[in-house]
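User: Predict the complex with EPS.
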Amino acid sequence: MALRFLTAGESHGPALTGIVEGMPAGVPLSAADLDRDLARRQQGHGRGGRMRIEHDRVEITGGVRRGRTLGSPVSFLIRNRDFAHWQESMAVEAGERDPEPLVRPRPGHADLAGGLKYGVRDLRDILERSSARETAARVAAGAVAKVLLRELGIQVQSHVLAIGGETAPERDLPPGELAALAEASPVRCADPEAGQRMVAAIDEARAAGDSLGGVFEVVAAGVPPGLGSHVQWDRKLDGRIAGAFGSIPGIKGVEQGLGFRAAALRGSQVHDPIYYDPTRGFFRRTNRAGGLEGGVTNGEPVVVRAAMKPIPTLRVPLPSVDIRTGEAVEAAFERSDVCAVPAAAVVGEAMLAWVLAEALLEKTGGDSLGEVRSNLERYRANLRELIR
Ligand code: EPS
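Assistant: Here is the predicted structure with EPS placed in the model:
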């Protein structure tokens, strides 16, 4: 059975819920593995008031016994502390009177498009699920995938490259060093000086009642060659990665390797020459392909960049229309982040880990971690036999 996950829950409802199905048995797993990434997702200069209310923690409610997965669905809850302030508006049962409806859609959010699709008169019905709060459940599901990958020698890490037009210089450092620098930065930027400029840009946008987007990069190291396949469009791993990143709220562009920069260069400047060494096997001295050729991993690190638009909830709102009357109004404002690019980078880690874990299990099969591990080792040994 393929690996899959579903999430449920509204931003101001009682809780977010996740179910991860298809995890092999015997993977060491504890709530702390998920909580670590939930805390990382809450950080970043530019986050708003909600993150001072929430202290995201999972309660694992199925699929794990005495620190190991059982092979059954791993289910978890993340309670929304803010629900305490929304009990009447977000109650499951119909009440005496309807809450005040949200009728002024925010340009850039799902409010209007979703409201038209579902035919609702209170746009809160849309906002509650389209809120990026849902990414907390994705990060928890991705953390489960990360534990499996880590057991197999694969690390997934992220850092921020740009916020609001302030960019970090390219640093040719190993992924682990980039990630360690990012972890110490208030905006997950591996370059401290650029990080300071990003913080200042966020403060300026906040003072102006505005918001900022940016670019982050996610790198997976230790990925074996041969994940994904060239044989069918929906099995190509580059397409699956682009789809997964495109589904993160606010993401408007996804690049792999050189991405858009490759379009202006010659083939000889873009493709990575192939080398062979009896101990290393096939390898490259450059990784402009971002670890993917023909929709298949080539054994180099997988490198994905994503562009996030500025958050649509603005303290100084844009023009909008009252959906009841058609009258020109200002868009609704409740409370929001000024910038969530560092948080989106952590969500990106979860999505890349997820797609790689899916593809890895497709390659190896196996119902227990031991079986997955020995199948992967046999595959790697077969690769070494290719040239004799
Ligand atoms: C989020 C919680 C939300 C938003 C944010 C993500 O909380 P609230 O709406 O109560 O302030 O802060 O969502 C968005 C930025 C968005 O545009 O949907 C979270 O937990 O990450």
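The CA atoms of residues 90 and 128 lie 9 Å apart.
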